[in-house]
Specification:
single chain; 40% strand; 14 strands; mainly beta; disordered N terminus; 2 helices
């Protein structure tokens, strides 16, 4: 998969010398950040789905996980397994790019506000791509240091930083990194620069692609907050 590094990033320094100033970096408190990556990123949006219900896609955890991989990640024809409950309001679904594929992404889903409310995806973990940093709901700014362990075709993993509302091919920043290509997971790490976000939250996405047709094979996803710099 050929990937192009994003050139956009937050520019926090002026072009000329200035008097010393106090600079602080702030982010919304973790408890104020809605946990959903997709399809709803705020409680108000999720409540709106329930009130204006037209179809029942997101009342089903399996359909929610499958549509996440198709619509958000860009997997062409994902095949979802059964829902495995963790408790009465959350669980996970294994999704493959095609039936019988050895590549598995485990999608974690959660009900927004109890029985009768829609499911949201809160994270995803690929079997062959481990994302170590950043962690869930961490505050990040450009460039963000991304690290983990992976095994992929030619060791290639693609890191994307997305803000809420972005889908396949949309990102604030993108960077190819290199992990392992053999049977064992090997480390990958590097800085990923990204443009100034217009939203307060988003996601860091790690993708691997097929050697045969360049389609998405796996994805690891974590929700993040965007820090703001003020002087």
């Amino acid at each position: 998969m050929a990937a192009t590094s994003a050139s956009g990033c937050d520019d926090d320094e002026g072009g000329k010398a200035a008097a010393p100033s106090s600079t602080t970096t702030t982010a919304a408190p973790v408890e104020e950040t809605f946990p959903g990556v997709w399809p709803y990123t705020t409680a108000a949006d999720a409540d709106g789905y329930t009130r204006g219900l037209v179809d029942e896609t997101y009342l089903d955890p399996v359909r929610t996980a499958r549509e996440f991989m198709r619509v958000f990640i860009g997997m062409e024809a994902p095949v979802a397994g059964e829902y495995r409950a963790g408790d009465n309001q959350s669980g996970e679904v294994e999704v493959r790019p095609r039936a019988g594929s050895p590549f598995v992404t485990t999608v974690s889903v959660r009900r927004v506000s109890g029985d009768g409310s829609p499911w949201v995806v809160v994270s995803a973990a690929a079997g062959r791509v481990k994302l170590i940093t950043p962690v869930a709901l961490e505050g990040i700014r450009s460039p963000v240091n991304v690290s983990g362990e992976a095994s992929a075709y030619e060791g290639n993993v693609v890191v994307q930083v997305k803000e809420d509302g972005m889908g396949p091919g949309q990102f604030l920043g993108q960077e190819p990194l290199t992990g392992g290509s053999g049977p064992d997971l090997e480390p990958y790490a590097g800085p990923v620069a990204f443009q100034a976000p217009t939203k307060t939250s988003g996601a860091v996405v790690i993708l691997t692609y097929s050697a045969e047709d360049d389609s998405v094979e796996q994805a690891s996803v974590v929700r993040v907050r965007f820090e703001r710099t003020s002087t």
